[in-house]
Amino acid sequence: MAKRIGLLGGTFDPVHIGHLRSALEVADALALDELRMMPNARPPHRDTPQVSPQQRLEMVRLAVDGIAPLVMDDRELKRDKPSYTVDTLELMRAELAADDQLFLLLGWDAFCGLPSWHRWEELLQHCHILVLQRPDADSEPPDALRNLLAARSVSDPSALTGPNGNIAFVWQTPLAVSATQIRQLLASGKSVRFLVPDAVLAYIDAHGLYRASN
Ligand code: ATP
Q1: What structural domains and CATH numbers belong to the chain?
Q2: One Pfam family name from the record (predicted)?
Q3: What is the DSSP code (8-state) at residue 105?
C-alpha cells in the first residue's frame, strides 16, 4: 500500500507546541504514516549564538520521542550547509516508491514566500503542499501564486490523491506561539513552561540556552 509521508521543515529554534500540535493534527487528519520534522541548516551568522544546530536537532528529537507518527529527520543538518527544499524533496523521493504520497507542510507565511525559493515551480513535481493556517495569517497570497492556486488547490485535504501535484489548506487549532516569543521570554528570565514540551524545557534549562549572557 502507498505510504503517506509528511515533511515539516523549520529552524525549530526552539521547537514549540505550535509546531508539534500542527504536525500532530495534520498527521491525524491525513492519516500519515510518518511526519518528519526536519531542522534546517542555517548560515552560521544567522544561528542563535550559543545554540548549536545539534542542540536544535536534539530538542526536536526529545520533543517527538515516543509521539508516533512524528519523527525527527536530521538529513538537512547532516549536510552542514543550507540546502534547498527542492533538493531535499528529490532525495526523499528517490527513497520512496513511485506511488507513495509526500506532503510538504508550510505555514502561511512560508507559503507566501514560495516564489523566492530556488526552483519553486518544481516543488509540486515531488510532493503535495499542505498550507497550515496560522492565527496571524490574514494576508492575501502574492500574485505569483494566484494562478498556481487556481490550477492546483483542492478544498478537501483528505481527498488528495496521487503522489504529488496539489495544494490544500489545513485548518488547525490556533496557537499563536512563536520561537521568537520563546527566545524573548527566556532572554528576559521568564518561564516558557507549557509553550514547549517538558523534555525540551529540561534541556533548555540544563544547557542554559537562550538566557541572556551577563
Ligand atoms: P521564529 O519565531 O524563530 O521565526 P517559528 O516559531 O515561526 O520561528 P519556524 O521554525 O520558523 O518557527 O517554523 C517552522 C514551520 O512551522 C513554519 O512553516 C511555520 O510557519 C510553522 N509554525 C511555526 N509556528 C507555528 C504555530 N504557532 N502554528 C502553526 N504553525 C507554525
Answers
A1: 4-175 (3.40.50.620)
A2: CTP_transf_like
A3: E
172 to 25, 178, 187: CA distances (angstroms): 7, 15, 29
Residue nearest to atom 9 of ligand 1 (CA): 10
- Alpha carbon distance 96, 158 (integer Å): 21
26-47 pLDDT, tens digit each = 999 999 999 999 999 988 788 8
| Nearest-atom index, ligand 1, CA of 174 | 28
List, in sequence order, the alpha helices (H) in the chain. 17-29, 53-64, 75-78, 85-94, 108-112, 143-152, 179-187, 198-207
Q: List pocket residues of ligand 1, CB cut-off 6 Å.
A: 10-13, 18-19, 22, 106-107, 109-110, 132, 134, 175, 177-180
